[in-house]
């Protein structure tokens, strides 16, 4: 789509109503709308001048604006040039968002050349005469007509850079990248905005071939029949191609495999551009969490803290949260993925917050546990110091050649011994430990929170891999142990980049030592007067 921008004088704003009326009557691919003092003329890929003449004729048949008045008041006194045309493909481009993307970039910081290189590497991994089919993630609906915020499938995004639904990407040794793109219609554009089409597939995403989606049933079967092995993204598999006879025949011959085995190998080791985005994502989340910690005494409610951290992330450029923030106060912190976030936080309780944001497709994930009142109790401090020491030891083990499994086993030994010393565990060999911590020490991190699930935790780590280290203990209120420890959940989670010589902690800016946390909270809150406490009350369920 093109947008032609025409500046309007104050005297011309009265045309708004007349042109708005015309929108309901002219159901073509070209329409007009106002934004402040600018008239936007949305034009499909046609000659602008001839299209302008046709739309004016249609408008003057159904509105009170005469053709001469429209031309003289809106178009006649000024000219429009190709320099004023913005190609809107439904996602940021260097033309539409020059503050985000440089020329040649598809994602901020990631060039079209890097996407081409990714596709080349994927083809090198696949057997000869293979064909890979990757569908875009479907739109998920909240209600009949209200969609959830759209998030692209990581593999589709990694290969194409396209952030919109409805497409199917096909990658082969002979054809290169072939993209089947959705066709925009009046209804979709009116309600959802412009979409990337065939032209964007070729010009922006650098596909070798591109076709409208209606051509898929005609073109894709021949591509499938010409391949010896067929791979597809199982998570986003769509009937558009799965019901094709050619696909069904390949499946019946056991020639269809899950593509993620190969895409995850590529995504596992991050490029310098990806690492920059991951570091930026971590920095945003760290700043947001730090401010939330500082205000946790002011906002003594899980929901308020969840809102605060999301606000701070988005104010720093995050597009969305990486997941629903975990904000567990008191005994709620012993629920590992607690997400209700609807309780008041009692004085003296700990708050466990697990949070991450998505920054141009790359996700952060970190956890801190702290007492909003400013001081740990003795029991809280004992458990916290155990988790802190385990975290330090496990991070020191992060280096090329180590594995998440090895680091996990070390964490289990440390936590079991410490919990037995406190009397929380009666026996190191007891299965009760797994009730207190059933989780792994960490996971891979990247475009997804739990990234590259096809890569084993036994795989030796390599430079460029990012993992989390997140020891924790979760003691339910009913657990058979000394009363002082019951109903306590503590986790410390950091992001760790594996380097050539060891590691780099990407979330080191957030304090995690007991003395640091207490000093931070008390020094900040000491000079802070809370205004209008009545406005800060929250209703607990």
UniProtKB/TrEMBL annotation:
Superkingdom as given in the UniProt entry: Eukaryota
Pfam family, one: Peptidase_M24
BP-aspect Gene Ontology terms: proteolysis
Protein family (similarity comment): Belongs to the peptidase M24B family.
Family annotation (CDD domains): Prolidase
Ranges of residues in domain Aminopeptidase P N-terminal: 110-241
InterPro entries according to UniProt: Aminopep_P_N, Creatin/AminoP/Spt16_N, Creatinase/aminopeptidase-like, Pept_M24, Pept_M24_MAP, X-Pro_dipept-like
GO molecular function: manganese ion binding; metalloaminopeptidase activity
Keywords (A to Z) from UniProt: Hydrolase, Manganese, Metal-binding
GO cellular component, as recorded: mitochondrion
Cofactors that this protein relies on: Mn(2+)
Name of the protein this chain belongs to: Aminopeptidase P N-terminal domain-containing protein
Native organism: Crotalaria pallida
